[in-house]
């Protein structure tokens, strides 16, 4: 329960709506209470006048008596109707305030969680599954809404109703009150347990359903692999098995559900019978009137739903508390990568220095860089070459502070990057990642993602520089072409070039290209490299690659192996070393570079 305290700030934000909701609840209940009171009066009137009516033998008088009595009944009927309408109207207002408030809180909470996710660093996302993040922001937030909305609403309704009705009942007869209320707690406890079982079963079904969804999703995404390995039947069997489990669980839930309503009706029926039986005895004793008995029967019916809701609300609150606990767990995580209090926004010219940098990935313990040193002057172009897993991408990650090194320092223009505001740092370094990610949006918007204010001409220029403009204009809808789920309508090379265009559009002084030409053919690669040559004239550029770009005159080429530099120099200097670089160059020249890359 203590976890739910985190939600109090939202109740404070919407306090007026909340208080108004409580007021409407109370008014609605007060109007509904008039119904049993009116019924009691009608019954009492009937009882009192029935004997007199029996004694009247004159037909005319009997007629007049009946007419008068009908008029009184109609009057009571109208009053009951009016009060019922008023009660209903305030119930409508109650829902409009409290339930609407819960929707506002759900909206705020969802945005807060999403905003918090955005602020967390990469390590957090590596440590938690996407499914987990998704379910917290959707299912957990929805469950919490059930607490701030329906649970609060039904609890206040139940409390106000219980206080008023029990007071009225005690006024009439304490003994009968005890008998009448006796089965109701049993009803509440039963509902709580049945709800608990239903919830457990529903959870299981939900988990199975998301399992089925992931199987289906994965098989659609991997349909090419499934077909090429002729695994359709196996995939179908796998899906069948998951579906069968889901069906069995659903049938079991339907059985429990089917018992729910009859069990409730039985409990309520028992309560009414008990009231009529004990009340009837009291009427015969003359302790209460027939009207009181009728009034009690209505009270029992009125209390049924609130009592039922206690069990329901209790399990709802329990679930909401568990969900809020999960949300709090994430909301309390603070990013490791954040601005230091004295961090400044600077204009980056492009000088880069890594001094004795060692970095180990925190969640795997893999050391990717060891005592690494590198110095780049503003405007220099540097190639980083090395085997797979050598630590090349890690170097790029450290430059944009996706991680901080455990040892050593990374400097930009002589300033430790931990002293530069994160936003300022990342805004001024363009990083084209190795793994392309395109959004399900138009090509324009995907490129413009780097600079949302860029005009169309600038977007087209970036596309031209990335050698993708021609391809785009050949699409029926040109730059407006929508990229399907994960860019399925594009080839690997096209996706890479759109990603490069996005990086170029940003146009800062420092550019990092992380092996982003691997899926383009040699001719296009040449074209892009020659475009880049002009584009990068006055910029600092780090080009991570597996291939040697002879067209490009690098100021420095570093060869990485196992997290450290093993060769460093210009093209000529490295060739004369006759080491890894010279070997790779020789193989590339003879068209064998693929062998080298795989080694
Ligand atoms: N996010 C990560 N979490 C944990 N370990 C990682 C992560 N990324 C890389 N590594 C590990 O760090 C080491 C260096 O990886 P890195 O991606 O920097 O190599 P790379 O030289 O860029 O390789 P490639 O050429 O294949 O892209 C590898 O052993 C890799 O397994």
UniProtKB/TrEMBL annotation:
Pfam families: ABC_membrane, ABC_tran. It comes from the Bacteria. Its main location: membrane. Residues 19-319 form the ABC transmembrane type-1 domain. Residues 352-587 form the ABC transporter domain. CDD domains: ABC_6TM_TmrB_like (cd18541). GO terms for cellular component: plasma membrane. It is found in: Cell membrane. It is a multi-pass membrane protein. GO terms for molecular function: ABC-type oligopeptide transporter activity; ATP binding; ATP hydrolysis activity. SMART domains: AAA (SM00382). InterPro entries: AAA+_ATPase, ABC1_TM_dom, ABC1_TM_sf, ABC_transporter-like_ATP-bd, ABC_transporter-like_CS, P-loop_NTPase, Type_1_exporter. Keywords: ATP-binding, Cell membrane, Membrane, Nucleotide-binding, Transmembrane, Transmembrane helix, Transport. The chain crosses the membrane at residues 18-38, 69-93, 151-170, 176-194, 263-284, 296-317. This is ATP-binding cassette, subfamily B. The lineage of its organism: Bacteria, Pseudomonadati, Bacteroidota, Chitinophagia, Chitinophagales.
